[in-house]
Write a structure and sequence with these properties.
Length: 380
């Protein structure tokens, strides 16, 4: 398939919202090779549990851990392999066992045409509710495979300019001043830092980081504040400290309090734990001023694209984030980075056993690899 043929095809693939160029009727739609692929090829799914080893104990307001369970997927077609990944931090409720069970139920070999992505993802969606990380691992592998079949990086198939990726942040967890110093040093290539707050030493944490760097900060409270007056006081104090946005300041159930804070806050208030998918986004459109999209929450690139479009229709800010993940899922998410206000795509740097290489950081921005599909290479 040449590029013009793919443009017509991809306008269907992405719901006609991204690419919709007209194709001359004189261009043959399928080459002989494509026809034989469609006739003979079948999708083959493989999956392997993979435990991510964290470089530092990861401490949030509500928990801490040293590993994250994951699942690596591969979808093969006509000699090419698309890579995908599920990362399952405990709070999402998925596990290697649940993902293995879900993936075992899938019969992808019924599909002989990988370009029928909408049909394939609809099938996966309807096999069982939930299982968003497991579904994301299929969505990512399919996007990788399609890009490889066409020979183009997926951001190009979305019609996106990789030079327009925004700054991406590096996360500093809740830690002792010594570890914070070490992490601020590790974050040297980044121009914005994300500080995790939500315990009783928030001001001290911010002061330690501020004593080491004057880079802009963003703050993620992970639902840690329980009182609206305190939240407003902190938002004003953080503004003075050069914080640019506030993420999930209070428990997601405290909707009225968060909506009140959003009205009074001197900076955008972003929903993360509260907003897993498009349905949550619609329900919370008057509660937050922006959303943090993660492939593992929403089920992959297809769902993430829908969320970006809906959020923009509500005039909301959009960031794209990640869990602790390998470069596979992080680089997949980064394909959408030119569409968002902020990226938080450092999950691969938080692990010590990344089996892939993918995106790199230049001048604090995501640099997408110039490789087909989601752009990753397996190195282990
Ligand atoms: Mg968050």
């Amino acid at each position: 398939m040449n590029k013009r043929e793919f443009i017509k095809y991809s306008s269907y693939l992405v719901g006609g919202t991204i690419l919709g160029n007209k194709v001359s009727a004189s261009v043959p739609f399928f080459s002989e090779r494509q026809k034989s692929r469609r006739k003979n090829g079948r999708l083959t799914l493989r999956f392997t549990p993979y435990t991510l080893q964290l470089r530092h104990t990861f401490t949030l307001a509500t928990s801490s851990r040293t590993t994250t369970p994951g699942m690596l997927t591969e979808i093969e077609y006509d000699g090419l392999t698309g890579y995908g990944e599920a990362s399952m931090p405990p709070y999402l409720g998925e596990s290697q066992e649940s993902a293995g069970k879900f993936l075992s139920l899938l019969n992808l070999s019924q599909f002989t045409d990988p370009f029928l992505l909408v049909d394939i993802l609809d099938y996966v969606e309807n096999v069982m509710p939930g299982n968003y990380a497991a579904k994301a691992s299929i969505d990512i592998a399919m996007h990788d495979l399609i890009g490889k079949l066409v020979g183009e990086p997926f951001y190009r198939l979305f019609g996106l300019n990789r030079a327009k990726a925004p700054l991406t942040s590096f996360t500093i967890g809740l830690d002792s001043p010594d570890i914070i110093r070490q992490k601020v040093a590790e974050a040297e290539p980044y121009k914005i830092l994300k500080v995790k707050l939500g315990r009783d030493n928030d001001r001290e944490m911010v002061e330690v980081v501020r004593s080491l760097t004057d880079k802009p900060l963003c703050v993620d409270v992970n639902q840690g504040w329980k009182d609206r007056a305190y939240a407003i006081e902190m938002a004003n104090w953080l503004k003075e400290k050069g914080v640019v946005f506030l993420e999930q300041p209070m428990p997601k159930e405290m909707k009225d309090d968060i909506a009140f804070l959003t009205q009074k806050s001197p900076m955008p208030v972003i929903g993360d734990e509260a907003i897993q998918n498009v349905g949550d986004l619609i329900k919370n459109r008057d509660v937050y001023s922006g959303i943090n999209i993660k492939l593992m929450k929403c089920g992959g690139l297809n769902a993430a694209m829908k969320m970006i479009n809906v959020a923009r229709a509500f005039n909301m800010k959009v960031m794209i984030g990640c869990m602790t993940e390998t470069s596979c899922a992080v680089t997949a998410a980064a394909q959408l980075s030119p569409l968002v206000d902020w990226c938080d795509l450092d999950g691969n740097l938080l692990i010590s056993n990344d089996p892939f290489e993918g995106l790199t950081i230049t001048e604090g921005k995501v640099t997408l690899p110039d490789r087909p599909g989601i752009g990753v290479r397996k190195i282990a």
